[in-house]
Design a protein that fits this description.
Blueprint: E1 10-14, H1 19-30, E2 34-39, E3 53-56, H2 62-75, E4 81-84, H3 100-128, E5 131-136, H4 140-143, H5 149-168, E6 174-181, H6 194-202, H7 212-222, E7 233-237
Parallel strand pairs: 1-2, 1-4, 2-3, 4-5, 5-6, 6-7
Helix pairs in contact: 1-7, 2-3, 3-5
Length: 244
Amino acid sequence: MNQLDMKGRTAIVTGGASGIGEATVRRMISSGATVIIWDMQTDKFKQFEKLSRCIKVNIADEPDVHRALEETLESHPKIDILVNSAGINGVNEVLHKYPTDIWKQVIDVNLIGVFLTCKAIVPHMIENSYGRIVNVSSVAGKEGNPTASAYSASKAGVIALTRSLGKELATSGVLVNAVTPTTVDTPLLEQVPQSHIDYMKSKIPMGRLGTAEELASLITWLCTEDCSFSTAAVFDASGGRTTY
């Protein structure tokens, strides 16, 4: 494992209690960062007792995001890094049969949640003239996956939000980038039918799923000072599936 220098940096990782978020938390801590986990999965917090502070927060609820930020700032007054990894899959269904309430829920968590956390935290980063934001999107946001219209639309929105915010902040010292993983072997796949997993795996030239640790390495590097001239960019991690 290559060494990445994050000493003295403080990060918030949404969805940090499992999957890509958890792997990112562990990689950042091993690189010297202080990490605060924002997540709804309080049952998973115990494993981080000696590693990280954990705060229960619904990122789709603006007052709850502000409450979580206030709690964070009480003990960590300078936030250097935000990783938006929290997300849900929804259901797999053709669009004309897709339940409207679930469609809206996916957009609320995957897209509006990213908007709300960025909206709350960016002013603190601007004030400090430094920040790194990484939004976890998906190849589904580039290509669209059948029977996953809500997920695909939400992740496409994350890409557009990243490009817009990155350009807004380009001279502020705050860099904003996105990563677009293909299917990654995480507990999130428990929400997905095996037939859909098989379909997505068949699209990957490397012939395998990605790992959370592979994504964590990329995300963590994007949050270091070494990443200094990339913003409003989208970094692919798809085993060759997407080439643009």
